[in-house]
Amino acid sequence: MRSRRDEFDDFVLDAAARLESTCGRAFPAVEFAVEDVPRGPAPWEHAEVPLGRLLPANGGRPARIVVYRRPVETRASGSREVAALVADIVTEQVAGLLGVRPEELDPGFGE
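User: That's the sequence. What structure does it adopt?
Assistant: Structure tokens below.
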């Protein structure tokens, strides 16, 4: 039996793999991570709870995209909506890393 946490991890990995396979440009060196909740807003973020965060490359480490499980799950009802929201978050963060609009990476972004 798979836990909700395991299922969520799979959603993130699936979204990243799908985006990498369809990305028309070189996919950036990036690590993906899941955390339960954010540790408070970063200085550049608004006061609302983030669903994901892009941490830039630093000291030889690749950039890192973190998706926050609990805030995502509270904004979606059911696995299908969670998977769709995770896909949008991953697309949005990779687009930020590449400096492009999310729609350039995924024409179905936000639908």
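DSSP finds four helices and three strands in the chain.
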